[in-house]
Amino acid sequence: MGPHVSWSSIAFVAALCFMLRVAVPLALAGRGLPRAIEERLDAAIAPILAALVAVQLFMVHEHPAIDARAAGACAAAAVYLARRSFVLALAAAALLTSLLRLA
Amino acid sequence: MRTNSDANAEETVGTGVRLALPIAAADYVDGVAFGVVAVALGVGALQAILLSATAFSGSAQYASLTVTGDHGSLLAALAAVAALNARYLVFGASVASVLSPRPLRRMAEAQLLTDATWALSLRGGRPRRAILVGAGAMSWLAWTSGTATGAVLGSVLPSYRAVGLDAALPAFFLCLLLERLRSGRAVATAGAGAAVAFGLAPFAPAGVPLLAVLALALAWGRT
User: Fold this and answer.
1) Which of A60, A94, B65, B82 is found 20 to 30 A from A84 (Cα to Cα)?
2) Nearest C-alpha of chain B: how many angstroms from A39?
3) CB nearest A47 (choices: B43, B92, B193)
4) What is the mean pLDDT of each run of 10 residues along chain A (103 residues)?
5) Domain that holds residue A52
C-alpha cells in the first residue's frame, strides 16, 4: 500500500513546518530575548550538536551501530582541526566512507 | 584557534554560501534520494518537488509519506512532523534578534532555518543573518533541485551510499561541535547531550531525543 499524499496533506505539512520556523521570530518582532534566555540558548548549542552527531552517526535504522561513516566523521574532524575548512573536511569524510565501503 | 578578525570577516551572504557548499552537496544528494523514494512510492513528481520547496525538512517529508488517505494517518503524520521540528521554535528564538525587521523578509529568512544553517549562523557566538541567508539559500536550492532530479531521473542514478556523502552531515555537526568545546562545561554538557540522545533514540519516536536534549539543556544551561 503506497502513500496517498493529497495536495491538502502537502499543504498541511508545509504550513506546519513553516509555522514552526517563523512563529517565534514573528512573535518577537525584532525584540531581543531576555539575557538569561539567550545565555541558556547559547549553552544549549554544544549539547544539541553532540546529540545531532549521536543520533545521525551512531543510529542506523533505529538501532545503535557503527559503520563506515564513523571513520569518515573522524577523518573530517582531524582535517578540520588541521585546516579549518569544511569543504576539505567533508570531502575527506565522503572519500574515506566510500573507500571503506568498497573494501 | 579562531580569532576575532576571523569572526568579523564572516559577515557576508557570500561567506554563508561558501561555508554551506559541502552541506549543499550533501543536501543535493539527500534531495535526490527523497525524490527517488517519493516517486517510487507513488507520489507525483511535482508534489515531491513542492513539498521540498515548502516544507524544506527531510525528516518531516519522509514522515508525510506515511499518509495513506484517511484523516487519522494525516494527523499522525502531522504529530510526527511537530515532534521532529519543534526544535525550530527554539532555533527561531535564538536568531530572531538579527532577522530583518520587515515581516515578509523575516518570515523568508526564518524559513531558511535548518539544523545546519542554524548552527553555521551561530558559529561565531552571536547569530549572523548574512550567514543564515547565504547558507540557507544554498541549502534550499540544493535540496529542492536534488528532489527534482531524483523525482524525474529516478532509478538511473547511482546509489547515494556509494559516494559516501551520507557521512557529510554528521561529520559537519562534529566539526561545529569541536569548535564549541572550549570549556570543561561545554565538554560535559555535550557529553551529556550525546548520551541522552543516544539512550533515547532506540525507544523514542524520531525527533524526540533531540527535543529532550534541548529541553534539558535549556532547563539547566548557563554560560
Assistant:
1) A60
2) 6
3) B193
4) 72 95 90 82 90 89 87 96 90 93 87
5) 34-102
